[in-house]
Amino acid sequence: MTLALRKLRENILPILLFSVFLIAGLSIYRDYGVSWDEPLQRDIGVANLRFILGHEDPLVSMADRFYGPFFELFLLGAELKFFPPASHQDIYFLRHLLTFLTFFVGTVFFYILSKRIFKNAITALLCTAALILSPRIFDNAFYNTKDIPLLVFFIISFTFFMVYVDTRKFVYLIFLAVSSAITTTIRLAGLLIPFLTVLTLIVGFMRSPEGWKKKMRAGLPKLALFLLLFAFFSVLFWPILWKNPIGNFILALNEFSHFRWNLPVLFMGTSYSATELPWFYSIVWILISTPIFYSVLFFTGAIKWIAGIHFTVRGFFENQALKLLAIAAWFFVPLLLVIFLKSVLYDSWRHLFFIYPAFLLLAFWGFEKTLAQLSAKFGRFNVASLGLILILGATFVSTAVFMIQAHPYEQLYFNRLAGGNLADLKSRYELDYWGLSYRQGLEYISRTDPSPVIDYISETTPGGYTFILPEADEKRLNWLGIEADDQARYLIINYRWKKSYPSEYREVYSVELDGAKILSVFKLR
């Protein structure tokens, strides 16, 4: 067998997984509506591009000037130069396509990262499949241009981090400096990566207690160059820092530590201010919106990791111990910071999506360790191991079935821990907070009403996003805002904050999922 054939045989399953995933994504990226933040995010890209071209306004005066623009500039560059769109619809289809392709690249890196951790291609493949078969992540991967790029670049950065830990080659430290700078310019949570890198370099100095001073003298230039490269690329990829790097960086830190958002958040049946959420808000959301077996594996992995921590100096400095510690820090440090700093959160746990890969790595580390222990005790082929594998397989299948049936609303996934179906959960948790379902309501109106101008109002702002419609329909639909208007012919609601409407309203169309109405169109006149 030739080397090429051997490589093909070894990689046939990953090739199959990624091929199916890519084909699926390319088949459905046009199916999603425009999410609440997308036009705002595009405006950030436009403002930063104008700043780069020498026009300070509107960036220096806009409220969101400190939002990291790297990914938005990438999308805008593709829009303006490589694929000039002919309509607003083309713009958003292109954005959805490129956001998905970015996530696809992230899953490939995640497979590489998983192989570095597990040293086992099958476990790495299962871990990657779990990332793909996570309904809320999958759904957001087409339109969420903030949280998904952050997740992807955390994966890429940690991949370079792990390769560097294994090889200690300086070239990977350079790649790590660039990728962690990009991550930080997307959101300041990326600062975790250079922090862990610096700690790892310091630990590297101390591997040999008798020679640590010599290693430190030799390694300090490497550490200094890493920090210099990280700082340089952070400023390069963040135009608002160009004129006053330190001052504006401090302002950005202050901005995001006192984030502006005071609208109500529905959680466990109670409406809270976003600044007064219970400390367990994120934890509950992770547990109720992730397949249950993934969480079971995570707790198994976390317990086994804690129980297996080496408390000796030699054990602590081992590469595998350092890698597991970094993964644990990736998950636990941001989560604990959010809890203790009482950070402003809303829209479920999407702001913490970037810790989810670490969640899965710990989960499948626990899966692998459990299988190894069962094999050692009962032999390689045993009923307990088979049962564990079958449960995982059943979880994959049931999750995939839900995603197919719920499409394009995969983000409305809840597991049984949430209690009841969506009809029951509608009064306890927010469902279509992104406003994606408005697209179907707008399509219904444009399809059934031939009027040259159609005046309508909506419950929330995304109801006015007609950009996703064909140009002719976009021009006919005239959004009058979110307030009552005597001229409006239709009212579209997505039940974000109002869960019911007067019975005299004549409903002409609705979108339902699992017994819950997530959108209604009322004809007012």
UniProtKB/TrEMBL annotation:
<dbReference type="InterPro" id="IPR050297">
    <property type="entry name" value="LipidA_mod_glycosyltrf_83"/>
</dbReference>
<keyword id="KW-0328">Glycosyltransferase</keyword>
<keyword id="KW-0812">Transmembrane</keyword>
<feature type="transmembrane region" description="Helical">
    <location>
        <begin position="353"/>
        <end position="371"/>
    </location>
</feature>
<feature type="transmembrane region" description="Helical">
    <location>
        <begin position="321"/>
        <end position="341"/>
    </location>
</feature>
<protein>
    <submittedName>
        <fullName>4-amino-4-deoxy-L-arabinose transferase</fullName>
    </submittedName>
</protein>
<keyword id="KW-0472">Membrane</keyword>
<feature type="transmembrane region" description="Helical">
    <location>
        <begin position="12"/>
        <end position="29"/>
    </location>
</feature>
<feature type="transmembrane region" description="Helical">
    <location>
        <begin position="170"/>
        <end position="203"/>
    </location>
</feature>
<feature type="transmembrane region" description="Helical">
    <location>
        <begin position="383"/>
        <end position="404"/>
    </location>
</feature>
<dbReference type="GO" id="GO:0009103">
    <property type="term" value="P:lipopolysaccharide biosynthetic process"/>
</dbReference>
<feature type="transmembrane region" description="Helical">
    <location>
        <begin position="147"/>
        <end position="164"/>
    </location>
</feature>
<keyword id="KW-1003">Cell membrane</keyword>
<feature type="transmembrane region" description="Helical">
    <location>
        <begin position="279"/>
        <end position="300"/>
    </location>
</feature>
<dbReference type="GO" id="GO:0005886">
    <property type="term" value="C:plasma membrane"/>
</dbReference>
<keyword id="KW-0808">Transferase</keyword>
<feature type="transmembrane region" description="Helical">
    <location>
        <begin position="92"/>
        <end position="111"/>
    </location>
</feature>
<dbReference type="GO" id="GO:0016763">
    <property type="term" value="F:pentosyltransferase activity"/>
</dbReference>
<keyword id="KW-1133">Transmembrane helix</keyword>
<feature type="transmembrane region" description="Helical">
    <location>
        <begin position="223"/>
        <end position="241"/>
    </location>
</feature>
